[in-house]
């Protein structure tokens, strides 16, 4: 019988783990942890501000990954590489689930705790998140007024404007349907991409052909369901944002100047892929 030394140092030794990193890249080096973990600079003396900062910083990291995946998914759709696009879109939906649950952590902040840090936020607000705006534009919710909060930073304005002026994920999806011979009207294939998407009975009819014969149009049918999953997850993210804000600040105006809960309620009415939802009634 082999004797095993139960001491922790003996276990590490037995695993042959490297312990000297004087001349090697470490975990912290690879992840740039010095920069990341020193990026939290509370402005108030309140204990709870750290939660508020980390909640929003981690959300921005997840949004960076979402934009990375959405951009690649659009290219994959344009190049008819649908299996790759599906993987990317599924990943975006899972990221949104992470963001939904992140609100559960922020919801542990009570109204008095938030009131203690709110004066230190000045007019900074998630409303000004350029990455969130790029996500909205990429998903088709175009609004020229939303460029203005970024006018003071030409570099950020250029990134938001690029998303604003580009075809959305749904626009690329409709182009794909047309390439497959489905009767998507020309008005929805070449248009001013900066204008909000207008639902079309003809577009719904094209999607209905897909949904009435899934076996014939299997990958397009799967695309429709990936888009449905994506919008479903996005709605949950928006709704959880609304309920968290209402729980923490009630109906006070947002630090960015919006009506707060009232503004967030209006956003719940935005439908990104309208024909995919309407066809469920008309099937």
From TrEMBL:
Substrate binds at residues 52-56, 114, 118, 255. InterPro entries: Trp/Indoleamine_2_3_dOase-like, Trp_2-3-dOase_bac, Trp_2_3_dOase. Keywords: Dioxygenase, Heme, Iron, Metal-binding, Oxidoreductase, Tryptophan catabolism. Heme binds at residue 241. It comes from the Bacteria. Heme-dependent dioxygenase that catalyzes the oxidative cleavage of the L-tryptophan (L-Trp) pyrrole ring and converts L-tryptophan to N-formyl-L-kynurenine. Catalyzes the oxidative cleavage of the indole moiety. This is Tryptophan 2,3-dioxygenase. It comes from Tepidimonas thermarum.
């Amino acid at each position: 019988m082999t004797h095993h030394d139960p001491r922790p140092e003996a276990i590490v030794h037995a695993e042959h783990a490297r312990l000297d990193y004087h001349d090697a890249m470490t975990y912290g080096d690879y992840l740039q942890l010095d920069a990341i973990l020193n990026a939290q600079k509370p402005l108030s003396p309140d204990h709870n501000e750290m939660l508020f900062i980390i909640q929003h910083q981690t959300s921005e990291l997840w949004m960076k990954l979402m934009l990375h995946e959405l951009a690649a998914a659009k290219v994959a759709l344009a190049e008819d590489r649908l299996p790759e696009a599906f993987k990317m879109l599924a990943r975006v939906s899972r990221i949104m689930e992470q963001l939904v649950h992140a609100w559960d952590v922020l919801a542990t902040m009570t109204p008095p705790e938030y009131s203690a840090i709110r004066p230190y936020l000045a007019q900074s607000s998630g409303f000004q998140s350029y990455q969130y705006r790029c996500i909205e534009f990429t998903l088709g919710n175009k609004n020229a007024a939303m460029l203005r909060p970024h006018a003071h930073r030409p570099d950020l304005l250029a990134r938001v404007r690029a998303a604003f002026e580009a075809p959305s994920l749904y626009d690329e999806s409709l182009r794909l349907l047309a390439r497959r011979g489905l009767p998507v009207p020309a008005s929805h294939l070449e248009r001013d991409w900066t204008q909000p998407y207008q639902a079309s009975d003809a577009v719904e009819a094209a999607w209905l052909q897909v949904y009435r014969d899934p076996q014939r149009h299997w990958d397009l049918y799967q695309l429709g369901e990936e888009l449905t999953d994506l919008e479903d997850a996005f709605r949950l993210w928006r709704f959880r944002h609304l309920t968290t804000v209402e729980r923490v600040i009630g109906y006070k105006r947002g630090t960015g100047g919006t009506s707060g809960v009232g503004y967030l309620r209006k956003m719940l009415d935005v439908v990104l892929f309208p024909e995919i939802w309407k066809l469920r009634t008309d099937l």
